[in-house]
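Re: Re: ligand-bound prediction request (bumping)

Still looking for help on this. To restate: I need the protein modeled with geranylgeranyl diphosphate bound, output as structure tokens. Inputs repeated here so nobody has to scroll up.
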Amino acid sequence: MPAFDQKIKETAALIEAALDRHLPRRGGPLGRVVDAMRHGALDGGKRLRPFLVIAAADMFGCPRERSVRTGCAVEMIHCYSLIHDDLPAMDDSDLRRGRPSVHKAFDEATAILAGDALLTQAFELLAEPATHPDAEIRCRLALELARASGREGMVGGQMIDIYAEQKAFDLEGIEELQRLKTGAIIRFSAIGGGIVGGADAYEVDALRLYAEDLGLAFQIVDDLLDAFGDAEALGKPVGQDADMEKATFVKLLGAEGARSKAKSLVERAKSRLDPFAARADALKGAADFVFARKN
Ligand code: GRG
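Reply:
Sorry for the wait, this slipped through. Here it is.
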């Protein structure tokens, strides 16, 4: 197995174990929402966002407990967004990560509550002193994650996306939509790792520039996978964008145009990390991984 694949698998195992600890099973009616949270958050996913957090934090010698907690917070937000996105009111998907989506395995009310509880627990995790002894750092993490997740971030992007289904979007419009919908959480992952690791303002800025290019490349590859990928490898149906007549990078640029744009964004993302020299190898590997991924 290539060294990077091994590395991201090791991080995924760390995150899986930590999420398992943060979501202890319990009995009674309350236990049902915990089971649904576990269904949505455990046992699946590449854990790319926590990988970015941990790889960025490692560059500054951050203790693993702090970066794993920050990584779990961002993964909880990501999983909440997938649970809600799969609901009949949004993308209406029965399958996620090769398994029934949460509202199929449970029911819609439980899926809404499970998403809500993951969203709120993410901020609980960041606010707890074990994330960082300095309350100002914890507050900065919560502020940045709130901005990335909410009105001017992922939620705003999702709103535009739902509206855009009836509208023709140009390249600029779709870049703006994706900067919010998927880009904002990827951006948080890199800068959050820097913040929890004690990066200075200049270093956080370099991470931000890296992640902005990476987030866009990630979305372009996502569009390519939806158009040309393998449903089994993806763990979800393909061709959904075309079925819903969505504006995508593939539709606007063609397959080759989209692929070459993703490649040049990945190369530029890596060059943003030059100031960190070899310390940034894991983040550079993540950029290549995003371009080459099959799911
Ligand atoms: C419901 C508020 C709200 C927002 C939903 C991110 C999102 C907004 C919806 C997800 C729809 C989607 C499939 C978007 C494409 C990009 C994306 C987030 C793909 C899934 O992320 P991966 O590939 O998934 O990192 P894994 O399963 O590996 O974690």
